[in-house]
Amino acid sequence: MASIKYFCLKHRKPIVLTALLASTTAILWPSGDSNPYSEVELPLTTQAAIEESVAEPVEVVQDKQIEQIEQIEQIEQIEQIEQIEQIEQIDYTIEANDTLGSIFAKLQLPQATMYKLLDADVDFVQLDNLKPGQQLLFVREGENQLVTRMQVVIDSIHTLEFNRDGDEYTGKMLSHVTNLVERKVDGVINNSLYQSASRAGLSPAEIETISRLFEDKINFARDLRAGDTFQMLFDDIYVGDTHTGRSTLKAVVFVNRGKQLAAFLNDDGQYYDESGQSLNRAFLSRPIPNKFRISSKFNPRRHHPITKRISPHNGTDFATPIGTRARAISDGVVTRIGNHHAAGIHMTIQHNETYSTRYLHLSKVLVKKGQKVGIGDVVALTGNTGRSTGPHLHFELHVNNKPVNFMTYSLPKGKQLDPSQMVAFQKLVNQYLAKLDSDDDSQLAAKSEGTPDRA
What we know:
With 455 residues, the chain is of the alpha+beta class. The chain has helices spanning 47-54, 58-85, 100-106, 111-120, 193-199, 204-213, 419-437; strands at 2-8, 13-19, 88-93, 135-141, 146-153, 158-165, 168-175, 178-188, 229-239, 242-256, 259-265, 271-272, 294-296, 316-319, 325-327, 332-340, 344-350, 355-365, 372-373, 378-382, 392-399, 402-404, 445-449. It is globular, with a radius of gyration of 38 Å. Keywords: Hydrolase, Metal-binding, Metalloprotease, Protease, Signal, Zinc. Residues 312-405 form the M23ase beta-sheet core domain. Its main location: other.
């Protein structure tokens, strides 16, 4: 008899077996007279040989471990490459006569995705007003190549981004951080205000702002005389070192026939003359008659009645019969008219540098894009177009391009500043006048603004 030890790798303990040593063959005979079994050879391995095969050198074990690690890393790299290959980015520049529908058809993107994006766009109303030259970005991922992200470059400051959230999309407006650079403009009237101001470097939009401010005080077509002068102070808006083409008028002083006319931007976003009298007309308390009830209030956490999702309600809904006359709540210019899958027929009025209003779900627009409107002018008829649960007017007030609650926001009433307000206003006016009278024409960075989101 001899003992043979087999090394158990699981328990790290030797197992002792007892075997009958024969020459090299063990004959197994069952009980009984017959012999149904054939001979089976059982080679015996010595203990030393077994221990040698089990206890490999440390270097060999380490080499095998390294080889296994390398194989795992190669598999992970292959998986990462496969995941990257499943992500597709599509950049598209909008061309003349493009619509969102034609763009989706051209890029072979699902129409169902387009309608879901339009639903998410109801708070921004941008996708039905795409313009040639604007940039679009689509990101598709996975085996099904679903559109997981879409971006629309609105202008040099703002980018609208939609991200897939389950089966729907959510939108947010991204803003570059901007720098404000002061610019002083001096000029002399030689013919018309437009020609003289253009020669001084003013844009058509800046000239329009000045014309609206003084339209009740001076007739620029009749009252100007050669030799009249003007001084203006602007904040030009930059992204990095690039001028966005946008600016804010802070102060303007006209000398017309020896008489001085001035306008200064106050901290409340309104323009006043040097005596503190507002140059902006009052705002109406409602765009429709007071007899119509509010069916849905401004609510950033509103539970949408159709989609059943939490989505902001950026306006006030007035329950009205179709065809009710909607009015401009203040003077302004119509800047947008469109027909949106979710917002329906809609329009936007820009009242000044600070305030704008939106009218959604209309049945008809009664004005044209670019048209000037006055406070109380009928501009549209209410309706039930777009994604709507019933006839109503969805009305929004935006302050510095952000929606606020129209029913609670304190709008300027075109009044005279009271004595306590005049102290701070006069200090601001003195700062403006000092800069206008300064001989230093260099541009100096004033401050930074904007939301530091990626875009």
